């Protein structure tokens, strides 16, 4: 079966390359997943032609094992096509259709070729179908990997982006929180803040939650833990930027913030922090 | 058995924990320290745990009890230099050590102790905490 599988495809690919290419592209353009806005016809044609050439070489090598080294060029080509489709915003179906739409034109040619030998035709159809299915699955897998790595990278970037600790004054740190606080993020935030407190020897840290859209008991607990840990190390935390709705939520939830200094705005918190460190801001001309 | 040295510095006692605390060592420290406070009439205790990298709930509790015992003996306790990891561990264990004063550095801890004790009846020449 292995040998018949390859020998069956070989004459078709060799003799009918241009017909196959034309039919394949027609089939792809007819598919509902065709996106002329995302990929140009020239590009598609190039990809198809390259793929058919690589396929021909792989079939000529006689190996039917898609995972073997003879199929490496085909796999590389498919991987690069799949990756670029993933980045261009094609759906999984659209990406897999690239391979699966080859079936129809290929089967038509097989039918013409082996019209007078139904047994060989059936065998060839089966072998080709299996081959294309495997390649299609490979495309889907690469596509999935591309999307996964994209999501993971974005998550990591968001995590880094969202936890800057800034120094406002000698001995005063500020941590503007933006976005929802989940466990992983608040852990990173807590570690970052405590590390910065040690490094800079700051005695006051202002945690600004203006950018936190919602507050639930879990978020409040994370905040309180951070404040408690900072206190254990000898630093005081001020929570600022509590919006009216959040203040209402906190009270309704029964969260006890009595042990923590809270201020409505970052400016108020900063003034308090300065006062604690023994500084005061005055306007040079005023007050005389 | 090894013991944690307690250094006397005028009216304060200094304890620097430089080794991994195990339970018996912690208990010995608790006993030695209370005895020493009594003996020297110390008004403040400064515990430096900046080299301590591992804590469990027992050690956390001992730190808390040492502070409470010292207060009963009329001495203020400041814990200084707690590492972030240790602080996180204690908080996750649910021990936020209420009633224990904390400071970032030994220097700040000393300032807190001096402020907490306030003006005391001295014999004219108060040498201060320099030695």
From TrEMBL, chain A:
Keyword Transit peptide: no
Phosphoprotein as UniProt keyword: yes
UniProt domain STAS: residue ranges: 162-273
Residue ranges that the Swiss-Prot or TrEMBL entry lists as coiled coil: none
Stored SUPFAM superfamilies: SpoIIaa-like
Alphabetically ordered keywords of this record: Phosphoprotein
Alphabetized InterPro entries for the sequence: Bact_StressResp_Reg, RsbRD_N_dom, STAS_dom, STAS_dom_sf
PROSITE patterns (alphabetical): STAS (PS50801)
Pfam short name (any one): STAS
Superkingdom assignment: Bacteria
Gene3D superfamilies in alphabetical order: STAS domain
Protein's UniProt name: STAS domain-containing protein
Organism: Limnoglobus roseus
From TrEMBL, chain B:
Pfam families hit by this protein: STAS
Gene3D superfamilies listed in its UniProt record: STAS domain
Tree of life domain: Bacteria
Family matches, as InterPro entries: Bact_StressResp_Reg, STAS_dom, STAS_dom_sf
Ranges for domain STAS: 1-113
Protein name: STAS domain-containing protein
Species classification: Bacteria, Pseudomonadati, Planctomycetota, Planctomycetia, Gemmatales
């Amino acid at each position: 079966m292995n040998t018949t599988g390859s020998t069956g495809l070989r004459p078709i690919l060799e003799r009918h390359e241009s017909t196959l290419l034309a039919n394949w592209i027609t089939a792809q353009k007819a598919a509902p997943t065709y996106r002329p806005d995302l990929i140009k016809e020239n590009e598609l044609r190039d990809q198809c032609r390259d793929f058919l050439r690589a396929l021909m070489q792989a079939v000529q090598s006689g190996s039917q094992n898609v995972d073997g080294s003879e199929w490496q060029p085909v796999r590389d080509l498919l991987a690069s096509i799949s990756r670029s489709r993933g980045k261009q915003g094609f759906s999984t179906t659209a990406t897999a259709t690239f391979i699966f739409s080859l079936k129809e034109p290929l089967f038509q040619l097989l039918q013409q070729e082996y019209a007078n030998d139904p047994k060989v035709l059936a065998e060839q159809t089966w072998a080709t179908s299996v081959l294309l299915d495997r390649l299609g699955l490979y495309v889907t897998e690469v596509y999935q990997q591309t999307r996964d790595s994209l999501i993971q990278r974005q998550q990591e970037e968001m995590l880094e982006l969202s936890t800057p600790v800034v120094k406002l004054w000698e001995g005063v740190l500020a941590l503007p929180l933006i976005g929802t606080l989940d466990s992983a993020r608040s852990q990173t935030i807590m570690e970052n803040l405590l590390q910065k407190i040690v490094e800079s020897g700051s005695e006051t840290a202002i945690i600004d939650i203006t950018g936190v859209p919602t507050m639930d008991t879990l978020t409040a607990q994370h905040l309180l833990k951070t404040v408690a840990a900072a206190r254990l190390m000898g630093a005081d935390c001020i929570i600022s930027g509590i919006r009216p709705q959040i203040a209402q939520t906190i009270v309704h939830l029964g969260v006890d913030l009595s042990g923590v200094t809270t201020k409505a705005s970052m400016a108020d918190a900063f003034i308090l922090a300065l006062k604690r460190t023994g500084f005061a801001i005055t306007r040079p001309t005023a007050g005389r | 058995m090894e013991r944690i040295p307690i250094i006397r510095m005028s009216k304060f006692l200094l304890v620097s924990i430089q080794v991994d605390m195990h339970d018996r060592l912690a208990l010995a420290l608790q006993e030695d320290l209370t005895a020493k406070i009594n003996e020297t009439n110390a008004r403040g205790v400064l515990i430096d745990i900046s080299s301590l990298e591992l804590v469990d709930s027992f050690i956390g509790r001992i730190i808390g009890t040492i502070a409470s015992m010292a207060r009963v003996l009329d001495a203020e306790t400041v814990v200084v230099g707690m590492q972030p990891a240790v602080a996180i561990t204690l908080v996750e264990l649910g021990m936020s050590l209420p009633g224990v004063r904390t400071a970032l550095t030994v220097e700040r801890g000393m300032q807190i102790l001096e402020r907490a004790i306030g003006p005391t009846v001295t014999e004219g020449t108060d040498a201060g905490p320099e030695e």
